[in-house]
Write a structure and sequence with these properties.
- The protein has helices at about 1-50, 55-70, 90-100, 110-155, 160-190, 195-205, 225-260, 260-265, 285-290.
- The protein is an all-alpha fold.
- The chain folds into two domains: about 1-55; about 85-280, Helix Hairpins (Orthogonal Bundle).
- α4 (about 110-155) packs across α5 (about 160-190) and α5 packs across α6.
- The two termini are about 30 Å apart.
- About 15% of the residues are buried.
- It catalyses: Na(+)(in) = Na(+)(out); L-glutamate(out) = L-glutamate(in); chloride(in) = chloride(out); K(+)(in) = K(+)(out).
- It comes from Eleutherodactylus coqui (Puerto Rican coqui).
- It holds the Pfam family Ion_trans_2.
- Its main location: membrane.
Amino acid sequence: MKSWLVLALLVLGYVAYLLLGALVVSTIEAPYEENLRQELRQLKQMFLHNSPCVNGSRLEALLEKVINANKFGVSVLNNASNESSWDLASSLFFSSTLLTTVGYGYTTPLTDSGKAFCIFYALVGVPFTMLVLSAAVQRLMSTFTYQPIHYFQLHRGFDRKKVTIVHFVILTLAVLIFFLVVPSAIFSSIESSWSFLDAFYFCFISLCTIGLGDYVPGEQDNQWLRQLYKVSVAFYLLLGLMAMLLILQTFHKAADLHGLTDLFYLPHLHDQEDQEPILETSDSTLSEREPKRPLTTGTQPSYSSINR
């Protein structure tokens, strides 16, 4: 009964959070949208008034064609970039956003054969990408999570729960600096139309795999080293996703130790995940931890077996 009550409260809290987000976004964005709509209507009426030879319905048809083409990354402006959206570098960037499920939606397949290929390509590629990222994160957990916590708890005598909190905060700050703040500064210097906030927004939305598509790097006119830039962004996305998964895995481990998984009836991360040999530990230390279990040659300290 208690588990259902906790679940009900959790669902109600989530629904309330959704409604709060909807209310805030609607309050902020709706007035700007209405002002923009009125401005466009005035510009259109002014153009038709100054150009009596132009038919209104034909203008509507032209604008619809232009807007639809722009959705696929094709522009009719004279100063628009003539770079193809499907050169090798751009295609690699598209593949990375497809397989990582970032999916900006700025460049999309135009043909039926391209759409069909994307379905089968993603059907295999998305699980494959998750497998590669998960395997990489497990190795990173050994270096950046298990080893530091074992060291400070076993050799420095710090309390395990305090160590996990401090470690999680430090790791989060490191990821924030090296995968959000520093890349934001780089993007804002390369993309002339982006402010630092725009670049930070792009990095955060991308690494959370939200991918709204309102900001896409490498699409400005006369982009310097555009192909190299596109490839670099693709690798940044992969590394950034590893960093975000590392944070989530570390948080899950900390939640295990502090009882949050029991509170919300979430599954624990099992000890089998952290059996990688991390630290040489004396037999006396191991015997103190597990007095009733005989030690074997391959016994290694696990994250969840450290003394409280």
